[in-house]
Amino acid sequence: MKRIVVLGGGESGAGAAVLAKKQGFDVFLSDLSAIKPEYKSLLDQYEIQWEEKQHTENLILNADEVIKSPGIPEKAPLVKKLHELGTSVISEIEFAGRYTKAKMICITGSNGKTTTTMLVYHILKNAGLKVGLAGNVGQSLALQVATDTFDYYVVELSSFQLDGMTEFKADIAILLNITPDHLDRYEYNFQNYVDSKFRITQNQTEEDSFIFWENDPVIKAELAKRKIQSTMYPFSIERSERTKAFIEQDELIIKTLKTLFTMPTTDLALQGMHNTYNSMAAGLAASIVNVRKESIRQSLQDFQGVEHRLEYVATVKNIRFVNDSKATNVNSCWYALQSMKTPVVLILGGTDKGNDYSEIEELVKANVKALIFMGLDNSPLHKFFDGKIERIVDVQSMEDAVKEAYGLAESGDTVLLSPCCASFDLFKNYEDRGQQFKSCVRNL
């Protein structure tokens, strides 16, 4: 009997273990950290052997195949050992893809992928299609393949997930944009990260679709070097002869061989330039799977945004508080600052992944009246911003960050949490950071 070992006991790992068990494999799951109670009970329910807070090597190195959580880097000693033994190490998504005939709509990009994923799912679900939501959002793809039958999956893919995929194919691939992120995982070589993102097109044939932002300089340069097999659906604000979604006279227009769809941009639920791109990409995907125009229009109008992404929290004494905790890279913060219509008090900081803050420098100088650095080590932020902004305050907790921001802001200003950094120095994750921000604001 083939032995499958799963490394990591979170959402993706537990789901992969259940699918492997249901496919009749000998399954063992191992996690260096503690496993959450809900995943333990899921593993127990399917009588899957597991261990936590350790990796017992003789139970792992005898695997025929290993399914690795995307959070575990390739450089981890155990992963290196597995590679040396020639053991196949794959991702949960790669594994799940083997056991379903459902159509895969996969979304990646440095920014906007969660919003676009949720939006595509919203459109397809409202149109009455049997659709699952998976990847970085929703339930694990493997668990849904094991326990459900869907015709479509909308899957958000990070570069880490794409790294572990070789045979998997997206029927519809969406690449929103590429800006530097996670360079600590890619030897600080931007091209490695770019290659990783382009894996979303691997194994595609002309029967498949590739939706991408036509004016992204990085994507443009890559397309000149690569031979993409799939049918291309570029989107852009300005129309070129190949553009399939664009804006003309304040109308969003989608024009493919099968469809001519138009709607006023003022009717879109998601406002702001970056969100217009997200709506174009989602509208194209829905058109390709033949969702009715009326249904697309309705869904683009009534979509509720994503928590922790430019989420309005409250107004206190005419000061608006906006939670953008999901902005874990500099480009996300750039989008947030660009969408602000008032002076801003900006809360930055956390675990710096080798960030280059020059991308937001002009916007900070133009719109930001005070900076609050919230992290255990704020030296990279000081190094860049000292002398450029008059008021800079250091804090070590969310409560202090909100108090200081409230004190520095004046009537009509916005306090924006858009940290540019990962959250692991002071918080469990970006959700925890965003929740703490919201509760501190509500306690003002």
Explain this structure.
- This protein is α/β, with parallel strands linked by helices and 444 residues long.
- The protein folds into three domains: 3-90, Rossmann fold; 94-302, 3-Layer(aba) Sandwich (UDP-N-acetylmuramoyl-L-alanine:D-glutamate ligase), CATH 3.40.1190.10; 311-442, Alpha-Beta Complex (Protein-Tyrosine Phosphatase, Chain A).
- 36% of the residues lie in helices and 22% in strands.
- It has 17 helices and 20 strands.
- The chain has helices at residues 11-22, 37-45, 57-60, 77-84, 92-97, 113-126, 141-147, 159-163, 190-198, 217-225, 273-288, 293-302, 330-338, 358-367, 379-385, 398-408, 430-442, and strands at 3-7, 26-31, 49-52, 65-68, 88-90, 103-108, 131-135, 152-156, 172-175, 209-213, 231-235, 245-248, 251-255, 260-264, 311-316, 319-323, 344-348, 368-374, 391-395, 414-417.
- The strands form four sheets. A six-stranded parallel β-sheet has the order 7-8-6-9-10-11, covered by helices on one side. It has a six-stranded mixed β-sheet with strand order 15-16-20-17-18-19.
- Helix 13 (330-338) runs parallel beside helix 14.
- The radius of gyration is 22 Å and the shape is globular.
Output the keywords.
Protein-Tyrosine Phosphatase, Chain A; Rossmann fold; alpha/beta; UDP-N-acetylmuramoyl-L-alanine:D-glutamate ligase; 20 strands
Number of domains: 3
The CATH architecture of the largest domain can be given as 3-Layer(aba) Sandwich
- Biggest sheet: strand arrangement: 7-8-6-9-10-11
Uncertain stretches of 5 or more adjacent residues: none
Strand content: 15-25%
Radius of gyration: 22 Å
Q: What structural category do the secondary elements indicate?
A: alpha/beta
Terminal CA distance reads: 60 Å
**So what's the CATH class of the largest domain?**
Alpha Beta
**Count of DSSP H/I helices:** 17
User: What percentage of residues falls in helices of 4 or more residues?
Assistant: 25-40%
CATH topology of the largest domain: UDP-N-acetylmuramoyl-L-alanine:D-glutamate ligase
**Which descriptor suits the 3D outline?**
globular
Write down how many β-strands occur, each being a DSSP E stretch of 2 or more residues. 20
Largest sheet features: 6 strands, parallel
CATH H-level superfamily title of the largest domain: Mur-like, catalytic domain
